[in-house]
């Protein structure tokens, strides 16, 4: 497991309990790890109980925290309710919900079956709602009602010196893991894009409806994250041979030309096959993201410092989605040629 470097206080999530769907692998596994490293107790949930147990054992040993695995299918209301009950029995409460369970596969719309579309929609969108509603009913609403009642009683009592409840400390948090591919209508992603667009909309609606309970609901939209199955599946260059001679040459230091790695070789910059590494050229920050980048964004959204942030989507993609329509101009030599183009922009008369 990678070593972790964080600017957050190591105890910034102490006393919190997080329930993370999809926590057995990928980005959500790293979110679970970082939450544990920063003091939280964590429940990880997915369908594969053996993988969950292995992950929980590894994370607990690596962090010294308490990680509890529970099996469930986010599409099954009965299983979700049972899993939430187990989490509550283990830790007594839930403060943070991360909806990270997702399904995806590249497929052209004309080849996409109704069942395939329905399955992804059910896992991503229906599942996020089922888990959110279950946690809200069983935990968030009762907890916040109890705390608000206590606060009202303390304010109405004769002792005016009683401290008021700190809304930042006692509020609840829901984080939905979304994506950016539907922003610009990415190819082969009709099903997943539609599902994540629904998740984005649901985030806003729940933020409005549940805000009075002091529940904040936000999204995180990761971009190309190194080492994830998503990048392997969705990188548009992953299965593209490098045949353009201009793509085989790179600018060396001092202006000399050097030969780029050939097809099938491994790029020293990203440890990815060189074909897949082409995507880095078209990310404005010129690197792939890491799971830690996403996990640290998740920590921020759970802290009191983000207590006035709700209904928002935090995009963690290095600017990639905004540049996706400018891929040719972001190629180094074409970008330089564009900047030297022999034309003059009209000056403003204002």
Automatic annotation (TrEMBL):
InterPro entries: DECR2-like, NAD(P)-bd_dom_sf, SDR_fam. It catalyses: a (2E,4E)-dienoyl-CoA + NADPH + H(+) = a 4,5-saturated-(3E)-enoyl-CoA + NADP(+); a (2E,4Z)-dienoyl-CoA + NADPH + H(+) = a 4,5-saturated-(3E)-enoyl-CoA + NADP(+). Keywords: NADP, Oxidoreductase. Its EC number is 1.3.1.124. GO terms for molecular function: 2,4-dienoyl-CoA reductase (NADPH) activity. GO terms for cellular component: peroxisome. SUPFAM superfamilies: NAD(P)-binding Rossmann-fold domains. Pfam families: adh_short, adh_short_C2. It comes from the Eukaryota. Coiled coil: none annotated. GO terms for biological process: fatty acid catabolic process. Residues 241-270 are annotated as: Disordered. PANTHER family: PEROXISOMAL 2,4-DIENOYL-COA REDUCTASE, PEROXISOMAL 2,4-DIENOYL-COA REDUCTASE [(3E)-ENOYL-COA-PRODUCING]. This is 2,4-dienoyl-CoA reductase [(3E)-enoyl-CoA-producing].
